[in-house]
Design a protein that fits this description.
Blueprint: H1 7-16, H2 23-44, H3 50-55, H4 75-79, E1 85-86, E2 89-90
């Protein structure tokens, strides 16, 4: 069986994340995290064989390209097609709450 996550460890992580936990929540999370760690330990002990490890050991070369700078599109040519422009930016209607 793997290590049990203590309530003190839960409180420490909660403080790092700036979360306030009640005593009941800290106890619950301690139990739940201990179960998760236990399951992870069980998974580590599985013998999957070499062929499964090799199957996922690849690099998708199409996702990589040379990092190089390219000419950008002129701001004016982009903004001239916009319906509303303000201070050299697209003006859009507010979507969160009231606008100015």
């Amino acid at each position: 069986m793997s290590k049990k996550i203590s309530i003190e460890e839960v409180r420490h992580v909660a403080s790092l994340a700036r979360l306030r936990l009640t005593e009941a929540e800290a106890e619950l999370f301690s139990e739940q995290l201990s179960v998760v760690i236990s399951h992870m330990s069980d998974i580590e002990e599985l013998h999957t064989g070499q062929h499964i490890q090799e199957r996922y050991n690849f690099v998708d070369e199409t996702a990589l390209r040379e990092d190089r700078s390219e000419a950008s599109i002129e701001r004016e040519s982009i903004l001239k097609g916009a319906p509303l422009v303000e201070d050299f930016m697209f003006k859009v209607p507010p979507i969160l709450g009231e606008g100015k």
